[in-house]
Amino acid sequence: MELRNINTFLHIAELHSFSSAARELGYSQSAVSAQIAQLEAELGTPLFDRVGKTVRLTDAGQTFQTYARTLLITAQQAKAALMPARAVSGTLRVALADSVCSTFLPDLLQQFHALCPQVELVLRTATADEMLRLLGANQIDLAYTLDQPLLLPSLTLAVNVPEPVCFVAPAGHPLAEAEAVPLDVLAQQEFLLTERGMSYRDALDQRLAARGLAIHPYIELGSASLLCQMVERGMGLSFLPEYIVCPALSAGRLARLRVPDCTVTMHRQLFYHKDKWLTPQMKAFIALVEQ
What positions does the domain HTH lysR-type occupy (predicted)? Predict the structure, then answer.
């Protein structure tokens, strides 16, 4: 039983069309028909009902479909197990939260390329909701985000690291030396915040709303690293992940405000769809993030 024929069978089953499968696989339609005829002869049963222009799986075809997927995955895993990391090729598609990109991505990409130089990395920024949609449609392989813990039955969580989020002010700001800053005092300050819909911005808004307060920033911006730079310039206060502002805090360019009435911790998470086969390049990326 040839793996090529099994692969063709699965494409036809998904596309409900011999001609569409032929176009996608780069075969002639006659070659596709011959492959399925050979497979049906080997199995001793028809796999498709062909009525007019419609193509549907027979009962036997539906039963074989599950085994066909398992056979292909097993063959891919066997091939990958014998392949050294530097020989791994193909594509790795990763969606990332913007706040993860500036801090973790440069070193991560350098290390990954050194480990798997033949893998093409396709990266895109996305919100958590967009990541879930893309994973469900198999348009990405991995999602790397900063959010509330995402514990869904459709996901496999590969990495989960808690990350505090903090209020920061320019060095020398009048509130920097306060032992505790009340939320009502904080809400009266000039703020630069990430856009609504971003995880830690929403968490902040919810905690303020619970006390009947709100912060109305005079600048909203998607880039956390750029917000950090603007706070360093004295343009206002912000609420940002600690890992973003840590270098500026250590250098004395920013001050962390002590706000005991509002503590927020997000989770830096790397996950993939539970039905996704873990490719060698996915395993390599996950291992680097875990480090």
Answer: 1-58
